[in-house]
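Example S7 (structure tokens).
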């Protein structure tokens, strides 16, 4: 987003492909595979466990308990307001659940970027979402887009695709892509760089100043000791496995400061 002003000055716009997964039935597949029964039986705790992402514990336990209660409330509300999964179809239900509970979290950043330049997100337009839900769930996959690309711009089909740090051939099916990426990840033959490490290392002085600042120490919901353990573990003990944890907290902290400064 820091480049948006520069793009605006060049009279350029942004076309953001975020949420293209909605048209390829790629969201919440872990629930589809492991929690189908939990959806049909309204097993909230099972669903919450499948929604959970592994993140460093940077918040105090009492705040974590409050957040868990909030998640439970949102899941219950979804079941009480969405169409029954058995009647609507579990794949459609999961897509709608994603739109209701995840898509809305992007609206604040979208509103902020709209003040800087034209930022168009085609995959969340109501007209396209309507078409997506009119398309049978079984046909919402990678092949749909491969076909469109080959018809409208066949030269693009010669360019390999990228997921994370793995390069994979154009044209792989949904399951084949998942297997290919997982195998590449295990063999660690994908492209690797030190960008994250270089970035975090360049911010060491800023990070150290931050964890000793009054603003940080007065933040009531932070687990200050846990965050300091992450920072010291990475910078002092050279534990590179903490890079993602440090990156995640730092991203959240910058977002927190920007939110308070609005």
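Recovered sequence:
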């Amino acid at each position: 987003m820091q480049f948006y002003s520069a793009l605006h000055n060049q009279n350029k716009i942004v076309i953001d492909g975020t949420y293209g997964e909605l048209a390829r039935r790629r969201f919440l597949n872990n629930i589809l595979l492991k929690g189908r029964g939990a959806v049909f039986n309204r097993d909230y705790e099972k669903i919450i466990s499948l929604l959970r992402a592994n993140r460093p514990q940077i918040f105090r336990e009492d705040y974590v308990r409050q957040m868990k209660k909030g998640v439970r409330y949102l899941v219950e509300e979804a079941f009480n307001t969405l169409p029954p999964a058995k009647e609507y179809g579990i794949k459609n239900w999961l897509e709608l659940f994603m739109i209701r509970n995840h898509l809305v979290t992007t609206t604040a950043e979208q509103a902020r970027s709209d003040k800087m330049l034209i930022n168009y997100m085609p995959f969340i337009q109501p007209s396209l979402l309507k078409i997506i839900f009119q398309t049978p769930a079984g046909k919402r996959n990678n092949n749909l887009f491969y076909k469109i690309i080959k018809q409208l711009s066949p030269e693009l089909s010669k360019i390999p695709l990228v997921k994370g740090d793995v390069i994979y051939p154009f044209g792989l099916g949904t399951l084949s892509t998942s297997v290919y990426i997982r195998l590449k990840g295990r063999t660690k033959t994908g492209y690797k760089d030190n960008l994250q490490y270089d970035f975090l290392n360049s911010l060491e002085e800023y990070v150290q100043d931050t964890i000793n600042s009054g603003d940080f120490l007065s933040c009531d919901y932070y687990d200050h000791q846990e965050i300091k353990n992450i920072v010291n573990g990475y910078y002092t003990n050279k534990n590179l496995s903490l890079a993602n944890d440090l990156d995640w907290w730092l991203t959240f902290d910058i977002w927190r400061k920007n939110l308070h400064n609005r």
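Notes on this example. Residues 4-155 form one domain.
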